[in-house]
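We emphasize that the prediction below concerns an isolated chain of 449 residues; any contacts that depend on oligomerization or on bound cofactors are therefore not represented. The input was used exactly as deposited, without trimming of termini.
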Amino acid sequence: MGAKVGLWRALATALADTLYEMSGFLVVRVAAVAAVGDTTLIVESTDRWPATGTIAVAGETYTYSGSTNGSFTGLSPSLATAVPEGAPAMCWSKDQTSMDLLRRAFLVEYADGVDLDTLGRNYGLFRTRGLDDDTYRAVLKVWIYLDAGTIYAIEKILDALRGAGTYTIYEKLPGDDHKVYIEIDPIPSSTYQGKSYLIGAESQPRVTLRTVDLDEDPTLVYGIYTVLDIPRTGTNYVMEPVNGTLLGSWFTTVGPDLTATDEGQPVSFTTLDDHWKVRSYLDPHTVKLGLDQRSDGTLNGGLPDVITVDQDVFADWMVGHDVVIVSSVNGGAYEIAEVVTPWRVRLLGAAFVSETDVVWELVPDYTSTGTSAQLPRATWSGNTVTTPVDLPANVLVDYTTIPSAQAQVDQFADGTDDYPFYLFDETAIVQAVLDLITVAGVTPVVETS
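Result of the prediction step, given as a token string:
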């Protein structure tokens, strides 16, 4: 509950609220004497007053550039007359009252959001997807009274959408008699989030047997090949051979030593063509293998020994390994008997009842098998890359300097730190608007330089 006040003060407050809602007038009392030349006015409260605005006090009008809970600051000009304590000060705001907000909703300069959409539709001009309020407002200002079908109209729209001097309009005559070409400048940006870059191989000589210096500092080095290996079919010197034995889901090595940093890394078994991931590190010679847990399994009681998933994750080499289902109803480990399709496998001993969104994972189940594998072991500091094996004299290095558009295994991977990018046509908005203002039979062709 609010504090209790006297009858007259309650009436005055009610009247003030009504005046504010309908006309935008606010009145407050000065709380301390102000002298000539002061630029700050102490008042009882600035509640509901605009952060900046105009104030009238002692017969003069001033603007203020800031406010606190109990003062207006930055008065301009400074006070021309002294202001006694208790004197009234008044402001008027034409952008906060109910009546003014309603009025502004019908004005291009002030309407926003759905009000701006409604205003545009009243003229038959619909907002193109991707236009923010400021750009759409600028377009409407020229669009509403535009001489459609003229070069002048195209120029005015492009000025609003892209800015003057950022485009070129031309025709290809004779030949393309009914086409107008618009070449727009790309919009520069200093951020790489949401973008993708084509990375080419960098040719470098080795510095030492196991180091190579790059032109830039890498954030990820994913391939080093001999300079003649253009198709990347030979040795990747980022990888280090590791020999050992597979048993169940464990890989026991005889050298070189494994480290805790290998956890989460992919493992490619060269003699088996099997591909796993280090799920957990036990000691310098032992790691547990597997693949990430997923939640896209579907079980159907009509096919009681089959699991179907949303992605093409199954391959023929997985036959004999286990699908572990984490479920209170169908839980258990089941051996893969057949890969029916990349999305479906048949499992031994399964008798499933129907269930969706099943949590499952693929776990290796090897009998004792001697094999060799490869793990990514290259490291880098600054622009120097150190490889786990000796390099040829000249190499091609595939690397990136920014975490741009990192490829994910599937939709279950967390891409937050990998800066996923989105396909977007930079010309789409311009093309859509120009299509609306050109006459029938004329085609605007928008390109980027």
